Amino acid sequence: MSWLQVVVLSVLQGLTEFLPVSSSGHLRIFSTWFFGEDAGASFTAVVQLGTEAAVLVFFFKDIVRILIAWIRGVFDSARRDDPDYRLGWYVIIGSIPIALIGFFGKDFIRDAARNLWITAIVLIAFSFVFLLAEKLGRQDRPVEPKSLEGLKMKDAVIMGLAQCLALIPGVSRSGGTISAGMFLNMSREAAARFSFLLAIPAVLASGLFSLPDAFDPAAGQSASGAQLLVGTLVAFAIGYAAIAWFLRFVEKHSLAWFAGYRILLGLLVMGLLATGTIPAN
After folding, report:
1. In 36-160, which ranges are E strands?
2. What DSSP state is assigned to residue 78?
3. What residues make up the domain containing 55?
């Protein structure tokens, strides 16, 4: 990979990871359009470690609080009424579906699912899921946005299943989980906060698991260790700013803004594919 490609795609990763527009879809589209070749699922997964580090830093106090409460609850049954203890289990249980599908469906995710026709169709189709969530979700559940007190195991399971859809470029991890939360009548802000916490185990595991393949041309374009390091740091810095902006945005604004953008991008990609400007695979 060239250094220009690494920097451009890492900036794109940082900008889009936490917005409901699909970071993997954007990297798949723009690496092919601008640089003539798919950067590969492994590069994408490794650079996601940078944006996931941004989540760890941004939610550091929350993560430490939840982790301490969970450990205490595991060893002391008297502490299991703590909402943070339950929240720790919700993150663990909610992460199981994507871990299983990601592991056993590795070959499909890295090959067939990266066809740009699929990405374009999914970008458009899933935009209507956002619109339905905005229309049908009452957002009146008493789930406190900061502490997430009031969250239930059912919410974690359903949002965890929705997160699995993000393995297809074009869906969006945050878009899928936030929409699921809104269908469960959670507020956008509460759904977004749990979405970010839920992504931590999955993205960290995916990035670490894919690290060896990122140096292998057979798994996509190979990158040097220095390129992966710089790409991860760039994605971290921009991703941190994107988290802060997005959480403020969803307090007062609809996901429909992102749905409109996704539809336009999907139509653009279809046009590029139909005219032969970019290849589907």
Report:
1. none
2. G
3. 3-274
